[in-house]
């Protein structure tokens, strides 16, 4: 694929054909914060206490990659969202913006496998 096709692919959803705008109306119609709900649907909060949140879920088919295991982007999004949520447990009015996220992928998680996310607040400046 040439560079312009890659650009169209990212901007329009496929970009394989010059006049390929079939996804544009669907993409424009996606509600705000759609991806948070898309990723977190089925997430269960197992524990919430000041400075600590534990969540779990079974990997749903919608979050699988081409290799049929949990997509790395979905994992990183879960880390970001659950990691940010712990800030609210100490009374913060908002979470801010993630500046850096480091995810180490130790093994694949396949469909219907249970995963757990633990978020611990190390410090908070009031």
TrEMBL record:
Domain Thioesterase: 68-111
Protein name per UniProt: Thioesterase domain-containing protein
GO terms assigned for molecular function: fatty acyl-CoA hydrolase activity
Keyword Membrane: yes
InterPro entries: ACOT13, HotDog_dom_sf, Thioestr_dom
Family: Belongs to the thioesterase PaaI family.
Keywords associated with the record: Membrane, Transmembrane, Transmembrane helix
Keyword Disulfide bond: no
Membrane spanning stretches: 66-88, 108-125
